[in-house]
Amino acid sequence: MISNLIYEWRRLWSVRASWIMTFVYLVITGLLGAGPLFLGDPQSNGLNVQTWKGLYSTNANFLCLVMLSVVASQFFGHEYRYGTIRLTLTEFPRRERVLLAKTLVLAAYVTISTFLGWAVLGVVGFMAPEGSIGTEGPGLNINGGEASELWQVLVFGFAYCIVAMSLTMITRNLALGIVLPLLVFAVIENLIVLFSGLANGKMDWIVDVLPFTNGTAWLTHLPDSPNAGLIFTAWVLALYLIGSAMFFKRDA
Amino acid sequence: MRIEARNLDKHFRNVHAVKELSFTVEPGRVTGFLGPNGSGKSTTMRLMLGLDNGGGETLFDGKKLSSHLPVTRTIGAHLDAKFFHPKRTAYSHLRMLGAEAGISKARVHEVLKLVGLESVAKKRPGGFSLGMGQRLGLAGAILADPQVLMLDEPANGLDPQSIQWLRDFLKHYASTGKSVLVSSHLLSEMELLADDVVVIARGNLIAAESMPAFLSRATGSAVVARSPQSDKLSEVLSAQGIASTSDGARTIVIPGQTTDRIGEIAFTNGIALSELSPRTASLEQVFLELTESGQEYRLGETS
Fold first, then answer.
1. What is the pLDDT of residue A48?
2. Which range marks the domain in which residue A79 is found?
3. Which residues of A touch B85 (CB under 8 A)?
4. Residues of B in contact with A250 (CB under 8 A)
5. How far is A102 from chain B (nearest CA, A)?
6. Hey, are the CB atoms on A87 and B140 less than 8 Å from each other?
7. Average pLDDT, whole number, for chain A?
């Protein structure tokens, strides 16, 4: 299993795209974190708008996650696009180990990137104007609502990347693995929520089971969505299981 | 290491691509894998490696491939000259492939030098020619010095010098007791390279035997005899029910006979011979005879 992990680690970092996307992720994280601190009013009604906790939940924003999801999609996307999956599976015939190695290395990648993102946000916060970061209250999550706990930022980022990787396993298409989650998260679910509002509650049941609506509700501690975390987890697991089954069953 | 393919079978929707194929690849020999386009050679190789799901099994010294660890010390496969990330350098590509067997950096450089890619080791292979891609694929296959080499059309795109190098390399590789299975469309090359052949057409096994045995199947096998008494020799042969045809001055061709038999007849009848040689059919000739009806994608008649 160690050799599987070494293989995946080398596969990940031996292409420039991984480095570039990680760099872009850090830049976007820094810019999104810096925006409210440097451009906004540091205080509103006498209260600090942002806190350290809120600042550190910046990288749960979908713009940051898209950058991570590009790398996540490449775990299978590059393999199928360039045919290297046949080299991988010749070297490691046990597909469950290949999948486990990819998942673990993805987890490591997301963890390292998230910590680096927090380091960037720390520098941004340190450089922010005096008084723009308070210590009272939960602070602002850039997705709206309360700031998330740090572990939630990490878990949400990993879950988003698992969705991207799973969709790539299912479609065997790198671009779809990146675009589909982004489209659903940023456009389709918002449209469904909008139509639901116009439908006098007849579509509420659909909204209640949307993956990313529930994901962000869990992330931002929305009080009226107690099962949001479970529903989001169910979506992520379902996609991962479908993707895994297709990876095991189909020809390489 | 002996490879035993048993009842390999594969369907693609309505197409029965590989039909219950069974054959063996012996250690210490180069086995040529031949068949027309679309005959199922590449699919068979993928089945043998477990890359495609299908019927049957392939055993390596009696065990499944996944039982041999590290796998890359057991088998090295090169299935396509373009199986690499175009932005991952040749060196990094091999370093990645060397992970399972713990291949050292020195070995990576050694293999790159062997296949003549040392000067482009740090270059991204997106701009490589087909021949350079073949060399990189071969480098990946031999990296861990495996017991078995499985190569799909490795000579495609190689220049004549490289083809000769590849032939010498594979012959030497097999001579050390390792097994080599190589598919190719270059029949003249295969005739020089392979000790055994496995021939398939439309997914069916046509032949699995040694190269001499395969060549002897040709209907065109004959003996050529040159003699100042060629007319007399023809008469003697005819008297014994052996047909012969004239092939120029003082030369006759006797189909379906051996040099031993004709030499004996000539000696018994006091006929001097100035040449007695076998005319063996070429691999191409035999291959075309045996696979004519099994060609998946037929060509039109030339005018």
1. 53
2. 2-249
3. 14-15, 78, 82, 84
4. 53
5. 14
6. yes
7. 88
Give chain A's length: 252
Provide CB contacts within 8 A for B132, sequence distance 6+. B117, B120, B125
CA separation for the pair A217, B235 (Å, rounded): 102
Mean of pLDDT values over B6-14: 91
| Residue % of chain B over a pLDDT of 90 | 46
Q: Which of A185, A178, A152, A146 is nearest to A164 (CA)?
A: A178
Q: Is the pLDDT of residue A221 over 60?
A: yes
Total count of domains within chain A:
1
Helix (H, G, I), strand (E, B) or coil at B206: strand
CB crowding B165-201: b at 16 or more within 10 Å, else e:
bbbebbbebbeeebbbbbbbebbebbbebbbbbbbbb
B177-206: average pLDDT: 87
Give me B206's structure tokens: 């046509």
Torsion sign, CA atoms A177, A181, A183, A188? positive
Residue B207: is its pLDDT beyond 90? no
Asked if residue A142 has pLDDT above 70, the reply is no
d(CA B43, CA A177): 28
Of B46, B92, B99, the CB nearest to A7: B99
And the tokens for B133?
């891609």
Residue to test with chain A: of B60, B71, B79, B96, most A Cβ within 10 A? B96
Distance from CA of B13 to the nearest CA of A (A): 13
Summarize pLDDT for B114-165 with one digit per residue, the tens: 988 989 999 999 988 888 888 899 999 999 999 999 999 898 878 888 888 8
* Cβ burial, residue A203 (10 Å; 0-12/13-18/19+): middle
Report the residue from B49, B96, B101 with minimal CB separation from A11. B96
CATH 3.30.70 residue window(s) in chain B:
222-279
Rounded to two decimals, the pTM is 0.81
ipTM of the complex: 0.82
Q: Please report which confidence band the pLDDT of residue A8 belongs to, taking 50, 70 and 90 as the band edges.
A: very high
Mean pLDDT, chain B, integer: 87
Q: What does the alpha-carbon distance between residue B87 and residue B92 come to, in Å, rounded to a whole number?
A: 10
By CB neighbour count within 10 A (0-12 exposed, 13-18 middle, 19+ buried), where does A66 fall?
Answer: buried
Q: Is B222-279 assigned to CATH 3.30.70?
A: yes
In the CATH scheme, what architecture does the domain B3-210 have?
3-Layer(aba) Sandwich (3.40)
